[in-house]
Structure formats: C-alpha cells, structure tokens
Amino acid sequence: MAEYGGKVVPADYTSGNMLFEPILEEGVFRFDCSADDRDAAFPSLSFTNQKNRDSPIMNQNVPVYTPTFECVFGQQIVVIELPAGTSFYGTGEVSGQLERTGKRVFTWNTDAWGYGSGTTSLYQSHPWVLAVLPNGEAMGILADTTRRCEVDLRKESTIKFVASSSYPVITFGPFTSPTAVLISLSHAIGTVFMPPKWSLGYQQCRWSYDSAVRVLEVARTFREKGIPCDVIWMDIDYMDGFSCFTFDQERFPDPKSLVKDLHLNGFKAIWMLDPGIKREDGYFVYDSGSVNDVWILKADGTPFVGKVWPGPCVFPDFTQSKARSWWAHLVKDFISNGVDGIWNDMNEPAVFKSVTKTMPEDNVHRGDAELGGCQAHSHYHNVYGLLMARSTYEGMKIANENKRPFVLTRAGFIGSQRYAATWTGDNLSNWDHLHMSISMVLQLGLSGQPLSGPDIGGFAGNATPRLFGRWMGVGAMFPFCRGHSEAGTVDHEPWSFGEECEEVCRLALKRRYRLIPHLYTLFYIAHTTGTPVATPTFFADPKDPGLRTVENSFLLGPLLIYASTIPDQGLDELQHKLPKGIWLSFDFEDSHPDLAALYLQGGSIIPLGPPHQHVGEADPTDDLTLLVALDEHGKAEGVLFEDDGDGYEFTKGGYLLTHYVAELHSSVVSVRVSKTEGSWKRPKRNLHVQLLLGGGAKIDAQGTDGEPLQITMPSEREVSDLVSTNKKLFRNRIESAKCIPDIQEVSGHKGIELSSTPIELRSGDWALKVVPWIGGRIISMMHLPSGTQWLHSRIEANGYEEFSGVEYHSAGWSEAYAIVERNLEQAGEEESLKLEGDIGGGLVLERQISLPKDNPKVFRVDSGLIARSVGAGSGGYSRLVCLRVHPMFNLLHPTESFVSFVSIDGSKHEVWPEDGEQFYGGDLLPNGEWMLVDKCLGLALVNRFDINEVYKCLVHWGTGTVNLELWSEQRPVSKQSPLTVSHEYEVRVIS
C-alpha cells in the first residue's frame, strides 16, 4: 500500500491527466492513461476501421478539455469536467428522462423485460455521452471498451466512466452543434445501413400469430379496413419446437406459399431467429455447428449449454469468422423460403433459469485476432448481439445482392446501426412507457442509431383504447414503426379497441404514408452523412436551455411533432413550447384530440406523397406535394431523394436528388428546382405546392414537377380571413371528433370498480407507484437521491405483493384492492395510502403505505390480516392464515448482489444467488434488519421489521430478481387478534 493525498491507496494506483493524440479528423482526440496503456488497449469493435482509432494524424490542435484518470484494482476511472450548465444526452438505449444529468447507467446487455424508468442496464450498450455546452456548442465522449462500463452523470457537468483497464477515451469536438458531433461520430462508427423503402411502412407483430391462416387473416383485415401496413412479423411459434431455421409443419406447412400470398397483397414477411440452437442430435443446425466447431465453450473447453425456448441450447460464437460464415450461409438458405427480413431476438444473449439472465462470464470465445482474440465472455458479452446482427446481415446480402437486407436486433453495441434496426425491447402497456418511448428513440438517435422505435401500444400488459390510440398517434411518426404485444394479452391490432381507436390509427398511419418521401429522404441523408433522423426539439435552437428538457416533442428534420402523453390531455389542451423563429402549424384535415400536432419550420420545404395502403403501391409518376413554410426573409428550401426503394443502384448514381427552393418577390412566391444529382430522369408528374400561411391555413397551387411554379400571395386581409376560417374548421374538427374512451376492460371481483392507473406517492427520498387494482401491488420503488429503481413490475404480477397463506399465490394476490384512505403531503399531511382487499371468509388484507415526514429517508408498510366478519359458527376465528410479505426486487447487477444480515444469535450471514432459496427462523432469524447489497452501486436496500411479528424470512433468487419475504406465524385470526407485519425500507451507502 502507499499514501496518496492523505489516503492509503494500493501500490498499483496511478492517476493524472490522460495523454492525447489527434485521430480521424480535426477536432477528434484519443486519450490514454499512458503510452503502455495505448499499446495494451484491445481492438476497437465500435470503429468501422480500427486504424482510424489507432493511427494519429498530423494536427497541431490541442483538446479543449482533457480527461483525468485513476487506475486502481484493475479498474480505470476517467473523469471529464465540462462548464456549468452543460446538458447530457446519449448513453444509448436508456429509460427515464431525456436529459441525463443525475443518472448512472451500466453498459451490460440485459434481457430487461418490463423495465422501468430507473433500470440501469437494458438490451444495448453505448458507452457514449453527447454533451451540449451552455453556449449551444456540443461534444461527444466515447469510452471505447466492450466490457461492462459505468457511465456516471450524477455530478453536474461531469462525466465519469469506470471499466476494466485499459481502454481509450475518444472525444469529438467541441463543434458548433450537436449535429456536427454526430456527423463526426459517424466517421468513426459508420452510418445507418440504407433501409429498403418498404421497411419505413407500418409493421404488425404479435407473440404470436400462431398459424399461416391467422397471418393471412390479419393481413386481409388491414386491407379491408383501409389501414396502411407493409409488414407482418412471425415470432417464435412459426418454428418447429422453437428450433431456428425450421417451420412447424402443421401451422406453417408452406412458408413459400404464405409469403407469396402476402406479397400479392402488398405485405412483406419478417421472421425471427434466436441465437440459442437446440442441442439435439439429428437437428441439422446443431449437427453442422458441431462439425464446424462453432459453439461458445465453458471454461473447461466443452460447449456451454443453457436453457432457452427450445430447452437445452448451444450458442454460436460469432466472434469467430468461421462461425459468422456458417450462420450467414444458414441465413442464405433460409431466405429461399421467401423471407424478406430477419428479427434477431434474445441475443444479449439471454439464458433462462440464470440469476444473471445470461451465460457465465468465464465462458470462452475463441475470437478472431482482429476482434481481440480468445477472451472470456465478459469481454465479448456486449458485442454478441452486434456480431450476430452482422452475420445475419451478411447472410441476407449473400442470398440476394440486389436487395438491401433488413435486420432487427434486440441487443446491440455502438455501431450496430451499420447492420440492423432496433426497438426498445419489452416495454409495458402504460402511460409512463408511452412517454418514455419518445426519449428512448431520441437517445438511440443521439448515440448513432437512427432506425428505432418502441412496441407501439406496449408489449407487456393490455393497452386501453385511449393509450393505444395515443401511442399510435405519435408512434406513426417514429423512424421505425411497429405494433407488438406479448402472449396472453388481448389483441393489439389497430381495430382491436373499438371504432374510435381504429379511426385514430387509420388517420395516424395515413399521415405516416404521406410523409414517407420525407422520411426516406432523411434516411438517405443519414446513411450518406451521419445525421440523425429524429432529434430532440432543442436541436432547432441548442442555445435555448428551456428546450433541453422538452420530452413530448421531437423533430424529423424541420418537421416538429408535438404529442400528448397524459391520459386526460388531448391535442387541443396541449401547451406547445416552440423553438424561436417561425413554426407554422398544419394538418391533413385530420386533426383529432388523440393525434400529434404538426409544425413546419420557416425556411423549409418537405415532400409528401399519397396515403397509399403500402409502399409498393407508390409509383414515380404519383402526384408530388411540396409543403412550404417561408422564413422571415421569404425563402425556403428542401430536398427529395428518389430511387428504386431497394437494391444498390443508388450507390452507382441510379437515383434522383432534387433540391427545391421557394422565394417571395413582391407578392409572388416562385417554387423551382435549384439543383439535381443522380442519373435518374425526372418522372412526368403533377406538382402540388401547399404554402403555409400560419394558423393551419395554406394556399394550394398546381403545376408540373421540374417546371417553375408561381403563386400569388393573398393580401394581408385575405390571409387573416384564411387563418380565421381555418381556426374555426380546426375547432370544429376537434369538437366533432369521436374521442377514444379510456376504459380498462377488466371484470372486478364482486362488482368492485377497478382502476389500473398507478397512484404515485412521493416524499423525501422515495417515489412509489401503487396500483389500486387486482393484487394492490407496489409496482415501482424509486430511491430519488441515487436514482435507483429497486423494484418495478407490471400491474398484473410481481412487484410488491402480499399473500394470506404459506402457499405461493394464495389469497391476496388476485383479489381486488380498493383505496380506503389517501393523505397528501401537499395538504400538509404525511404522504400515505391505505388499501384494503377482501380475501374471502370474512377476512380483509389491509395495507398502509406511508412516507413519514419526520424521517424522509424511509418508507413504511403496515400490513394486517383482519377478521372483518368471521361467522359465530367458527367461534369468531378464521381459517388458518399466514401474512406473507412478498416483494420481488430487481437485481441491477446480479453477480455483485447478495443479502446480508446478523441473526438473533449473533451469527453473520451473506446469501448469494448460488446459495439458492433459503429460509431463516428461530435463532437464525435476522435480528430485525436485513439488506440487499449491490456492490457495484455501493448501496444497500435495508429492510427493518419487528421480530415479534415475523416468524421466518425467505430469500428466493429468480432470473434477475430476488424475493426478500417476511412471514408471520400461521394461525387463525379473530377481530381481537389480527396478524400484522410492520416494516420499513431505507437505502444505505456502503463502503
């Protein structure tokens, strides 16, 4: 040990300013702790060309900001301090707020079903921060490591990375704008693949459409109802026993015929492929993989076997070129069945019946030398999904070089956009997740992945009609637009929630299809230059700090979409915070309280097309519409990209890129082509120009595309009259619209009216969400100072529950709970909520949740099994009952988490996941306190209770979860002798 700064530190401790060298292009720097660390760094899997990271360039500039480092116990801690007032974004696929100050995430790809706003590891890893400085300039910081990395933004204007030594840090900028930073980032990690045009249409999915007959029925219903759609997805149930590259011969006997029928009706078909390969002799995929020796190995050198959907499975080692080639050729053969796109799921990789939800970190990957060579799984875990997506993409390209692959991946790493689109994983059907979906799509775009979207309507749980319609209203504007829902939920197709919701979905998707020319142009620009597609509203004015936390609006180029994510607040009640300058509202004569508001920035022109039923209906000779908003100088400009919509002729000049300009001279607006690129000849087609005037008013003019068009401006009085008339028409449309009812179709027990809308309790250190519904669950426990969400669940299961017996899911779990009493801190009272559930036999399960004003660090739960009306025939006593407190906590870092306590007899205990389920009673009962420790966070969730009320304690480890149960004694109760358990929770910092 040695002494440093008055502290005793390990002998291997080093610290100081990082060394830099310029790389890639002007304004980009690589930082290392030392020259030796530079040489020791692993190859980059984020850069498209590793030489760009490892080769310095000639440049005399020096960085504006230099990170500092500390290296201790094999960990490299990097800190970069920026000016006060800096705002943070990026960090990839993350839940919660848009502006990330105060947040901490860990890059460790995790199967995060039903994640919450405080979940710290999701399906993808982007060790990247976009920092917007107070003056509107921006810079990006990348920790170029594939290993688990802590990205800590809890200290204002300070970025901290913590990961295993050694890794370089790459800084981009400061540059003049956030867009400039993202363009520079794309020069390092690559741009998004050019998507086939059909993939920008609406896509319908479900786990699962269980037969070819059902798939065709869904497709036919879209066409019959006139709701645009381009793709139907096949989840795992199309397979024979969940075995990849196979088809169930009863339910999907002829996939080629199914796809042919879909194609005839304008649909594409996308099919799922998971990495888990069933370990079964005679299964051709397993046999060929074994012959080619492509499986991930255990530390002892034998293939790792983990359970997934088919049962025991082996996993391809995509870090080996021979494994990637083997998989690519399987994909090539699979495509011959008429497969249009492939969905890579479960590729974190997810493994069932494992506390960590994945394979052991000491598994062995025999990686290619250029990727890092033979390494433990801990090194390659975060890039497994990227490498699988790459292999799938390459297989599709081998199958048909004249078609663009379309791959969707759940897991990924920074740079995955080169091969695949992504979605935001297994979200929940609730309003919080609707709101979060906007920020999540934007964060991915700010991290280099512009082609993303959520499961519209929510994957887990049942959407209400209004929730689904509102989600479609904004989701139809996302770059990737797909509806998806899990098994066991009600149907979630656009027509499944009544006529009012169906009409909103139809209007929303017709909007999307009108905007396809604009979206496709944005993706061409993103593909060729690295610009994002969807951006936060503050991109319109990065200097305005008031825009930096706006979460319910976003930009598609110059098009601003403003959505309401609050159940009882429609379009007409929405307060719009607009960037400075001219923003002109418009619609397609389709305004509805559940649709988003649309604005076009002054100085802009965007192209529109007809609202086709699918992209394949479009023809180059279709009428073209230009929507024009002049700036304060009377000018506007825009661009339209056109090509075949598929293939790669556009890389050889086979396209048409048209630049349009509009200029006001005197009282005449001239619209013309200013410049073109590409070898395509302009189609002969009509041109419609819609000139926005403000207040939703516009004037129309018609001509021929390619020829100048002149529009005579109306007088100021005429403009005023047009605006006034349009406002009245807008008001009439809003007032006459059939609003979507916000109902939850749930049958209450014994006629009780149920509400699935969470109630939030917030005071001191805690924010809780409680659902006065079946089970009366606490579905979220957020510790505000640390930003840690210790518990989150859907409303139907898990979370904090209580039972009335020793049996799992005994009465109390499925009964209806009503609110008995509610006290609000705003009213000067202690924040509390009292729930009561009738569990039959004259018994009531009563629960009071309170956040004490005199101790803001804790929240308290007082529960009781009470005999309310036990019959005299039983002597006033109930059946045999036990009050069983059953909270299911989420393990943010399963391998770093354990339960700790001191027993009544003074013995100390640490219970780890590998110890399995453990009961403690008698002298081994925790002495009134036990805690769930997360060593990675440096925090412990402490649970204190009265040992006179608790008879035994149970620790049960699940997949990424742990139950810390408190059991009362088991006995009958009477009115005079209830069973009670009172306990409280507090978060403690541990060293």
Structure, briefly:
It contains 14 helices and 61 strands.
Set down the secondary structure blueprint.
Layout: E1 2-4, E2 7-9, E3 14-17, E4 19-22, E5 28-32, H1 35-40, H2 50-54, E6 68-72, E7 75-81, E8 87-90, E9 104-107, E10 124-125, E11 128-132, E12 138-143, E13 149-152, E14 158-164, E15 169-175, H3 178-189, E16 203-204, H4 212-225, E17 231-234, H5 255-264, E18 268-273, E19 277-278, H6 284-291, E20 306-308, E21 311-314, H7 321-335, E22 341-344, E23 364-366, E24 374-376, H8 377-380, H9 384-399, E25 407-409, E26 412-413, E27 421-423, H10 431-445, E28 452-453, E29 455-456, H11 465-475, E30 482-483, H12 499-514, H13 516-529, E31 534-536, E32 553-556, E33 559-562, E34 583-586, E35 597-601, E36 604-608, E37 624-629, E38 635-642, E39 656-665, E40 668-677, E41 686-694, E42 697-704, E43 709-712, H14 716-736, E44 759-763, E45 766-770, E46 778-783, E47 788-792, E48 800-803, E49 817-823, E50 831-840, E51 843-851, E52 858-867, E53 881-890, E54 897-903, E55 908-911, E56 918-921, E57 926-934, E58 939-945, E59 952-957, E60 961-971, E61 979-989
Parallel strand pairs: 10-26, 16-17, 16-30, 17-18, 18-22, 22-25, 25-27, 27-28, 29-30, 37-41
Antiparallel strand pairs: 1-2, 3-6, 4-5, 5-15, 6-7, 7-14, 8-11, 9-13, 11-12, 12-15, 13-14, 19-21, 20-21, 23-24, 31-32, 32-33, 33-35, 34-35, 36-37, 38-39, 39-40, 40-43, 41-42, 44-45, 45-46, 46-47, 48-53, 49-50, 50-51, 51-52, 52-61, 53-60, 54-55, 54-57, 56-59, 57-58, 58-61, 59-60
